Amino acid sequence: MTKTHTITLIRGDGIGPEISEAVLHVLEATRAPLSFEEAVVGRAAEKAEGEPLPEKVLDAIRRNRVALKGPVGTPIGKGFASVNVRLRQALGLYANLRPVRNLPSIESRFRNVDLVVVRENTEDLYSGLEHVVVPGVVESLKIITEAASTRIARYAFDYARQNRRRRVTAIHKANIMKLSDGLFLDCFRRVAEAYPDIQADDRIVDAACMRLVMNPESFDILLLENLYGDIVSDLAAGLVGGLGLVPGANLGPEAAIFEAVHGTAPDIAGQDKANPTAMLLSAVLMLRHLELPLAADRVEAALASTLAAGIKTPDVGGTAGTRAFARAIGERLS
Ligand code: ATP
Questions:
Q1: Which of 169, 197, 249, 301 falls 20 to 30 Å from 80 in CA-CA distance?
Q2: Active-site choice (69, 173, 273, 312)
Q3: Distance 180 CA to ligand 1 centre (A)
Q4: Is 124 known to be catalytic?
Q5: Is 139 exposed, middle or buried (0-12, 13-18, 19+ CB in 10 A)?
Q6: pLDDT level of residue 75 (50, 70, 90 thresholds)
């Protein structure tokens, strides 16, 4: 008998419920041995339980070791701290992996983009350490440690080896932040010595951004601290057709959460317009993580065939709604 994998499912806010429904529909059509256990976080959990990230949700993810997650809203400038960030920190999901590549039949400014963003997920300015020094002056602490910088560099090089990638490029601003980004870069260089088969180079973040929008094909794996990783991921998504397309995985020794790069997209929520591709490709990463490569390949093929038939959501130039798009993918699987 094949083992059934129990996955913690967080549908999330904004477009989260719609794209989650679409992804569940497609996963069901694969008949992969998956079962889902739902968990609620964010504003809804705060209302119901007085806590946006209840301990029982963390326990459920620790138990199942795998979660599939829609975007969860974060109040801007006030209110509770980002649940997305707290989940990564509480579960030690130190590596954020975001493969960015052209999809067949999706028009974009560039062809042949095939890069991977590896983002450090636990520290940097996301430590949430901010305080008012005196009225009118605030300080945000950027935390960079040797341990976390070394661990993420090792992850990037191991990933390169396992996935037959040629090069890892560290992206930083060590010319200005000589201590913090300097430490990140030193750790990268030290780790690189143990991987003579993988090329290692580095670029300053501003120059890297220019090169990304001029010659994105020239990048392979990009290794970044948390904040640069956040910004460069969205930039990279723009290179291949937008935020609706780019998946992500948050990985640690004890658990993994698969989620799209994009946020809650409140501007299109509830209108059957959202593109579920980014979350679906996150589920494909999850299937590979669960060692279900055949199901992963089948979903990718069904997605490619749907796009080739001209069935696309409005963000990538089509007219299909979220539900119709998911149905079309599902039909190609059954
Ligand atoms: P948040 O605060 O949760 O990050 P946001 O609106 O600031 O939300 P995103 O949700 O990432 O940021 O959305 C940025 C833009 O990209 C919006 O105009 C949104 O409509 C569009 N977008 C994001 N994801 C998708 C998607 N899956 N399908 C279609 N459009 C999307």
A1: 249
A2: 173
A3: 31
A4: no
A5: exposed
A6: confident
126 is catalytic: yes
In 3D space, the residue among 185, 187, 157, 155 whose CA is nearest the CA of residue 170 turns out to be 185
What average pLDDT is seen over the chain? Answer: 96
Vertex 45, ends 42 and 46: CA angle to 5°? Answer: 85
Instruction: Dump pLDDT digits (tens) for 159-171.
Output: 999 999 999 999 9
How many A from CA of 34 to the centre of ligand 1?
28
230 catalytic? Reply is: yes
Q: Is the C-beta atom of 278 inside 6 A of ligand 1?
A: yes
Q: Long-range CB contacts (< 8 A, 24+ apart) of 286-293?
A: 286/7, 286/66, 286/68, 286/249, 286/256, 286/258, 287/30, 287/32, 289/66, 289/249, 289/251, 289/256, 289/258, 290/5, 290/34, 290/66, 292/5, 292/32, 292/33
Nearest C-alpha to atom 8 of ligand 1 is from which residue? 263
Task: Specify the pTM.
Answer: 0.93
In the residue annotation, 228 being an active-site residue is answered as no
**Closest of 117, 118, 105, 114 to residue 216, by C-alpha:** 114
Catalytic residue (one of 13, 69, 94, 126): 126
Which is the catalytic residue, given 228, 230, 312, 315? 230
C-alpha to C-alpha distance for 221 and 295, rounded to whole angstroms: 26
Instruction: Please indicate whether residue 275, judged by its CB atom, sits closer than 6 Å to ligand 1.
Output: yes
At residue 1, does pLDDT exceed 70?
A: no
